[in-house]
Amino acid sequence: MKRNIVEYLKESAEKYPDKTAFLDERRKITFKELDDEAQKIAALIYARCGNIRNKPIAVYMEKSVECIVSFLGIAYSGNFYSPLDVHSPIERIHKIIDVLQPAAVIYHTEEPDELDDCREKISIQDIEKAEIDISIREKYKNTADIDPLYVLFTSGSTGQPKGVVISHRGVIDYTEWLYDTFSFDADTIFGNQAPFYFDNSILDIYSTLRNGACMVIIPETLFRFPKVLMDYINENSINTIFWVPSALIGLANSGILDKIHADKLQRVLFCGEVMPNKQLNIWRKNYPDILYANLYGPTEITDVCSYYIVNRQFQDEEPLPIGIACRNTEILVLNDNNELVGENELGELCVRGTCLSMGYYGDQEKTSKAFVQNPLNSKYCDTIYRTGDLVKYNAYGELVYVSRKDFQIKHQGHRIELGEIEAAAGSLEGVNQACAVYDNCNKKIVLFCTLSAELTEKMIYRLLQDKLPQYMLPKKIKILSALPLNINGKIDRVTLKSNCM
Ligand code: AMP
Questions:
Q1: Which contiguous run of DSSP H or E holds residue 449?
Q2: What is the pLDDT of residues 266-323, one digit of tens each?
Q3: Which one of 88, 244, 401, 406 is least enclosed by Cβ atoms within 10 Å?
Q4: Given the CA of residue 198, which atom of ligand 1 is nearest to it?
């Protein structure tokens, strides 16, 4: 059993020194070069910050190979990284810096003035000046598996971003399970979509390191051009993708899957939001031999805690299950009385296992609300994470995601899952995507849709009357050319909610 993720890098650098590990638009890096450069980053950290251990170090640069070098250099030095989104409003960056108080920030070429509060700023260009000695090379061996590897900031409901702390152990446990489940190997070529400040990227990065695989960082702009994106997948021989559903839905709706065949694609994995069967069926019709898997999980449990490998046919309007718990993970579905749910009963998905985060950085109060004692065990310390997601079991004993607790509304006295309205609207012929929000002030349900046929709001309403009870019908329907996406590439519900009028 590995103690820290640097051991993955060391092993792959030994086994495949000259094999390309990561590449972006500007450069490639082999496993050996990555190992060397990561050590240099660790040397720079010591030279500038002294002999620090288990301290946060921020990485503030565009998504690139250099980010990976920085993450691994920080891990080498026995500290933990936190990637910041350079495109985020400066106010949000300041909030994160206030919480994180990083010992240093690593940046690319231009010193970021906006990070004046940071104690040390290290340019990745200084790598040339780094002096490595034996003590640096050996340092990572002191890192235990319970030490933190990274802190990812998710948006808190109060507007204060929460820093989710994840240990080496969580990532190792996850990466080993991925290897056993999806048989990644040195021939796997990942086409990375997820930004590095979003936990989906953990699968791509650490499976590449563990298996001597290769990760191609797909330029973000390509996701707006389906044909260029498909050509890029082919040119780079990408055979495995792990994307947010919105990105897969975009390709399915564009019609490109009929026209261009990605010959090498073997695995299509997704996580982060609901994947509608309507669009998955388009993928499956065009690529029947590919392995499809719906992974589920929040950042707080090291990316993924349940999975469903698609193994049967689904109607367009049926929900795709999120499946069963991953290895070494237990899922408890609890009702409002903190009891395990019965048949067909809706409950909150709660998780226990090695995957659990070490809580929110510098926020004991929020940590103790979300990470609580297992209500089914009063005998010893047994922490579960309450996800806030409502699920139920289907006839196969698989978990089915229904909605987030906060998407459950009370409207005209009825308890309604907005997800159910979306599923009904999304299954209509001619509707590409649907998102329902609740306008709390005016007490009305608003439905946003994108279309592939000439439908009017009235026509959509009439079609929905056949599918939903009266009280669930949207008060207002708005047709958009595209749904807005948030920084992780998921549907941006906050923006939609502010456009309810
Ligand atoms: P994040 O922490 O940004 O990864 O977001 C986690 C949330 O995304 C979960 O709590 C769910 O609400 C949602 N989510 C993640 N995976 C899925 C999935 N496969 N199906 C439906 N919702 C998902």
A1: strand 444-451
A2: 999 999 999 999 999 999 999 999 999 999 999 999 999 999 999 999 999 999 999 9
A3: 406
A4: 3
Q: Report how far residue 83's alpha carbon sits from residue 201's, in angstroms, rounded to the nearest whole number.
A: 11
Could you tell me the distance, in angstroms and rounded to a whole number, from the CA of residue 138 to the centre of ligand 1? 38
Q: How confident is the model at residue 324 (pLDDT cuts 50, 70, 90)?
A: very high
268 alpha carbon, distance to own chain's centre: 15
The two structure tokens encoding residue 140: 């990572």
How far apart are alpha carbons 419 and 434 in whole angstroms?
10
CA of 271 to the centre of ligand 1 (A): 7
Rounded to the nearest angstrom, the gap between the alpha carbon of residue 446 and the centroid of all alpha carbons in its chain is: 27
Atom number in ligand 1 closest to CA 299: 2
| Ligand 1 atom with the shortest distance to the CA of 387 | 10
Instruction: Give me the chain's average pLDDT, please.
Output: 94
SS3 content of the chain, % helix, strand, coil (to 5): 35, 25, 40
Average pLDDT over residues 169-173: 98
Q: Which of 70, 58, 86 is nearest to 29 (CA)?
A: 70
Q: Residue 298 C-alpha to ligand 1 middle, in angstroms?
A: 5
CA of 119 to the centre of ligand 1 (A): 35
**Residues in CB range of 89: below 8 A, 6 or more apart:** none
Ligand 1 atom nearest to 401, measured from its CA: 21
What separation in Å is there between the alpha carbon of 491 and the centre of ligand 1? Answer: 12
Ligand 1 geometric centre to CA of 251 (Å)? 20
Minimum CA distance residue for ligand 1 atom 9: 298
Q: What would the pLDDT profile of 426-460 be if each residue is shown by its tens digit?
A: 989 999 999 999 998 888 999 999 999 999 999 99
| Dist CA 71 CA 244 (whole Å) | 23
Q: What is the pLDDT of residues 137-157, one digit of tens each?
A: 888 999 999 999 999 998 765
Neighbouring C-beta atoms of residue 302, cutoff 10 Å? 28
Run of H or E including 15: helix 6-15
Residues with CB under 6 A from ligand 1: 154, 199, 271-274, 294, 296, 298-299, 322, 387, 389, 401, 404, 488
Each residue's pLDDT tens digit, 346-396: 999 999 999 999 999 999 999 999 999 999 999 999 999 999 999 999 999
Q: What CA–CA distance (Å, rounded) separates 133 from 137?
A: 7
